[in-house]
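To: structure subgroup
Subject: Chain for Friday's discussion

All,

I'm putting the inputs and outputs inline so they're searchable in the archive.
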Amino acid sequence: VLPNPVQAGARGAVEVVLGVEAAVRVEAFDALGRRLALLHDGPLAAGPHRLRLPPGPPGLVVVRATGPFGSASARAIRR
């Protein structure tokens, strides 16, 4: 998640890199596991993709990308 930390109220970004084209769901969650935003849900071409995080209050944000080959997550701190 770039940049880390993210200023509260500011937009950060997450980069998702795929080796092959695939349908991917990318979601942002708070520290309690509540979904803050659906960043992407659908096909993405192979290669890097930069997705914007929504602005929000201070705290932990967990971004999870899920596709046909598994899932990956990253954390960011809003200050």
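Points worth raising on Friday:
The beta strands are 13-18, 22-30, 35-44, 47-52, 59-67, 70-78.
Residues 62 and 75 are 5 Å apart (CA to CA).

D.
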